[in-house]
Amino acid sequence: MKKILFWFLILQSLSFLTVGAYQIWLQTASYRLSFAHYSYAANTGIKGMVPERITITSLGIDLPIYKATIVHNIWPTTDFGASYLTSSPLPGDKGNSIIYAHNWISLFGKLRNAKIGDKVVITYPDHIKKTFVIEYTSIVTPNESSILAPSKDRRITMYTCTGFLDTKRFVAVAILQKS
Known about the structure:
Elements (H helix, E strand, L loop, with lengths): L1 H27 L24 E4 L4 E8 L13 E4 L9 E6 L18 E5 L5 E12 L13 E9 L5 E9 L3
Parallel strand pairs: 2-3, 4-7
Antiparallel strand pairs: 1-2, 1-5, 3-4, 5-6, 6-8, 7-8
């Protein structure tokens, strides 16, 4: 009986280690934040300064923003802040600006607690701040890239992974607040 219990505990420990290692790999694999079938005309003429910080005070999010360019369908990510997709318009310009980050508690992990009406502040290197208000949130699959489509208003779409084994995306869409 002791031998059976011993082997059971060994197998159980190995399975926990395997699942844990797999979960860590899922969270750090850069393709995990990508969307299938995303196509947006490259924003080759970025005019002005690229945003440098995103702050959502109500959620305790205050992160630097890094430029991200899709190359060979690989969406680059960073462990140190949020990624601004350079093929999308600058936040505050007409269209749908895309900002994403891992769902780690130190990055966008708290984004899943976003509520309609929460304010999102984007800061630029010249200290200009643009305030957006969250209009809606949703959970989508990586195949539902329509949330990243161009828009006629001035919005930012923020997202992170969510769901079992990070197979879905939590999305928060915020519209530029009129001054």
